[in-house]
């Protein structure tokens, strides 16, 4: 589209991404590197305080368009580049970007992850959960997919194992707490089932749709969720425990795609793929919310080969 602009944006999953301009007019990119994010935040608080949230993910997606000269005036460093057809732009984790299309063009972009992204993935999703920022994909589904893929390489399985164990421990703890709170109704959702579960009235409760979003934190619930079919409310297990204390549990139901023995089997499968490997210390630290080392910062581009 002619003169399309992109608001200031940073990927909340901490993923790098790449954009390729196939043909058409140039695109102008402005970027703030990750190591200058605090200065960018300070400038945005002065210019547009109404859009800045008091959370880790402080700038919601697609909400702020600020002229670059104004940011520079407030002490924020910027990089600028012009992307021409046949060129790639690579955006590293933590960098903020904004774009302006100089005319009609055709481009495409894709996000990708390297193995070491798993070192900080759990922390990124916890930040999204605490900031009520909806993820693009389910972290639970990704971890289970890696754990049950027999062709996965050993290093990836080793880094995934502590994440899987942590997920299973949380799942067991929250399910036990909900039963102690009086929850008595349970229903298993088949992943390959085409029809909606009984009494489900809204499309997002379809079993084949993995993007069941918690009404409290907006996280994607893949393994399990607690729903109230009468009031059309859905919670992840953590916030079901938090929100339903001393509530009548009669109208609430636990929907789950995996029971605990199956989750335990996934753990065994992952350990079976790499029986002689232990999880690296950096992964264990990430799971226990110890901040990992800073990712690469800034934006760069290269010509197509």
TrEMBL record:
One of its GO terms (cellular component) is nucleus. It comes from the Eukaryota. GO terms for biological process: chromatin remodeling; regulation of gene expression. The keyword S-adenosyl-L-methionine does not apply. Keywords: Nucleus. Its main location: nucleus. Residues 1-129 form the JmjC domain. This is JmjC domain-containing protein. It comes from Rhipicephalus microplus. Pfam families: JmjC (PF02373), zf-C5HC2 (PF02928). InterPro entries: JmjC_dom, Znf_C5HC2. It is found in: Nucleus.
């Amino acid at each position: 589209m002619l003169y399309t602009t992109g608001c200031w944006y940073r990927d909340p999953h901490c993923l790098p991404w790449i954009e390729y301009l196939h043909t058409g007019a140039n695109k102008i990119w402005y970027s703030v590197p990750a190591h200058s994010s605090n200065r960018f935040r300070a400038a945005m608080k002065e210019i547009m305080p109404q859009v800045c949230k008091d959370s880790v993910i402080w700038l919601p997606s697609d909400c702020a368009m600020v002229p670059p000269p104004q940011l520079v005036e407030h002490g924020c460093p910027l990089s600028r580049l012009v992307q021409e057809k046949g060129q790639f732009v690579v955006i590293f984790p933590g960098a903020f970007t904004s774009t302006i299309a100089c005319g009609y063009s055709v481009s495409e972009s894709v996000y990708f992850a390297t193995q070491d992204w798993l070192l900080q993935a759990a922390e990124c999703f916890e930040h999204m959960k605490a900031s009520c920022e909806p993820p693009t994909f389910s972290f639970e589904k990704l971890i289970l997919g890696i754990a049950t893929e027999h062709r996965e390489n050993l290093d990836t399985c080793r880094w995934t194992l502590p994440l899987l164990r942590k997920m299973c421990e949380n799942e067991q703890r929250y399910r036990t707490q909900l039963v102690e709170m009086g929850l008595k109704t349970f229903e298993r959702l088949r992943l390959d089932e085409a029809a909606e579960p009984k009494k489900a009235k809204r499309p997002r409760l379809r079993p084949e749709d993995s993007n069941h979003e918690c009404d409290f934190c907006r996280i994607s619930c893949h393994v399990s969720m607690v729903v109230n079919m009468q009031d059309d409310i859905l919670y992840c297990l953590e916030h079901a425990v938090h929100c339903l204390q001393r509530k009548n549990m009669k109208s609430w139901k636990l929907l789950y795609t995996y029971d605990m023995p199956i989750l335990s089997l996934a753990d065994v499968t992952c350990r079976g793929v790499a029986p002689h490997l232990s999880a690296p210390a950096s992964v264990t630290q990430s799971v226990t919310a110890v901040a990992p080392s800073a990712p690469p910062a800034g934006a760069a581009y290269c010509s197509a080969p």
